[in-house]
């Protein structure tokens, strides 16, 4: 984190923007008081394509059928 004054930012804006692009966070200071923070935007995460595993798994017909009593009891700690 780099602290810079408003005046320094105005004098060499491009230099400080390059620092932000490189991953640096800037704190803008006026009269020894922090007034703003400029930080890089995190990279966007790529979404997984739809249907990536198509055909690799088939949902069984009894997928939503009630569980057997012994499994329910095990989950409930009985």
Tell me what portion of residues adopts beta-strand conformation. 15-25%
Spans with pLDDT under 50 lasting ≥5 residues?
Answer: none
Overall form:
elongated
Overall SS class: alpha+beta
CATH class of the domain at 2-38: Alpha Beta
Count of distinct strands: 3
Major beta sheet summary: 3 strands, mixed
Number of helices: 3
Query: Quaternary state, please?
Result: single chain
Proportion of helical residues: 25-40%
Radius of gyration: 28 Å
Query: What is the CATH T-level topology of the domain at 2-38?
Result: YefM-like fold
Assign the CATH architecture of the domain at 2-38. Answer: 3-Layer(aba) Sandwich
Ends: how far apart? 55 Å
Give me the strand/helix succession. EHHEEH
Sheet with the most strands: spatial strand order:
1-2-3
Task: Please state the average pLDDT score.
Answer: 91
């Amino acid at each position: 984190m780099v602290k810079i004054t408003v005046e320094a930012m105005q004098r060499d804006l491009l230099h400080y923007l390059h620092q932000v692009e490189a991953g640096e966070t800037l704190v803008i200071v006026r009269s020894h008081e922090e007034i703003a923070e400029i930080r890089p935007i995190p990279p966007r995460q790529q979404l997984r394509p739809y249907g990536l595993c198509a055909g690799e798994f088939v949902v069984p017909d009894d997928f939503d059928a009630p569980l057997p009593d012994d499994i329910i009891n095990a989950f409930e700690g009985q």
